[in-house]
UniProtKB/TrEMBL annotation:
Keyword tags: Pyridoxal phosphate
Catalytic residues of the enzyme: 180
Protein name (record): Perosamine synthetase
GO biological process: polysaccharide biosynthetic process
Gene Ontology molecular function terms on file: pyridoxal phosphate binding; transaminase activity
Sites of N6-(pyridoxal phosphate)lysine modification: 180
Pfam families for this protein: DegT_DnrJ_EryC1
Family: Belongs to the DegT/DnrJ/EryC1 family.
Cofactors: pyridoxal 5'-phosphate
Amino acid sequence: MIPVMIPMLGEEEAEAAAEAVRSGWVAQGPRVARFEREFAATVGAGHGVAVSSCTTALHLALVVRAVGPGDEVIVPSLSFIATANAVRYVGATPVFADVDLATGNLTVETVDAVRTPRTRAVIAVHQGGVPFDTAALRKAAAGWGLALVEDAACAAGSTAYGQPAGAGAAIAAWSFHPRKVLTTGEGGMVTVDDAEVATRLRRLREHGMNVSAADRHASAQPVLEAYLETAYNYRMTDIQAAVGLVQLGRLAGLVAQRRELAARYHELLADIDGLVPVRDPAYGQSNYQSFWVLLNPAFRTGRDEVLAELARRGVSARRGIMAAHLEPAYADVAPGPLPVTERITRDSLILPLHHRLTEDDQKHIVGVLRELAH
Ligand SMILES: *Cc1c(COP(=O)(O)O)cnc(C)c1O
């Protein structure tokens, strides 16, 4: 079976994790601090605060933006469900906006269409690594007086306007789940431009303590900590950060390889009618965390049958990005019309893309698609 994704993990990661274990310091400590600095520098952010996942990163981002009960937060329905769930964690109401057909992302127009006087924030996603239009959405959100939280779960290594996708973000949330390009097993990061917000985030992830456990242990004098607010345990471990530091060194190479594989898909797929592969938008570059294709009515075979046939022929593809408003967990939400979201989630599929994918694999996958096209 050709898998849809394989994390790129080598002996270096195994050795780094073992070294962290041997050091005796396995909880959040010096490796987490170093990973935060190096990750923030890589994505062009001022400060990084490591947490246990992107889901917890999104939760804390809404907490520091003071979003709460009575507030509406605009999110794309077309996203992994964690994007919408985070809104409910703070007692606010998710409001689903539609997306652009080419990028799968929110636009100024789709956000504006569902804005109300109760809207407090927007969570915009760089879907599957395809950057949203950062310049346009940041400017519009500022003009409307809304907090913009950037869900960059999939976007390590993506660029917008010639810079890393996270550069210039007031606040962004990242994932290191193995389905993403850079992994620590589980893990996440909040990046922010403001040092005071970073300090509050560090406190929120660690029970509201005014001094971190690592600093307390490092001090020669006894340090009496205080608990300043009700908070969480969303810490990353030093074992995870050790793996993350090695992964960070691989990021540029991994993204370059993913973009080469995507370019070969584009070439091989060019002559198949009725199928549109995801591409870079004019303003940026995807890391191709997900390579999806959208089936048009001209494509003879339905999406689910395409997935089934690919599976029979040894290819593990996946349905396209989910739509939260179609899931039982959101059955109580009555969204406005989301035609593009429903089109993409119904008619798209994600093709295998990983560091072991060969040219023959890609020819086989595209060969099956060509047979099913007409
Ligand atoms: C994967 C993903 C998440 C959740 O990330 P975790 O680290 O698994 O919590 C959130 N948002 C998007 C867009 C994702 O793709």
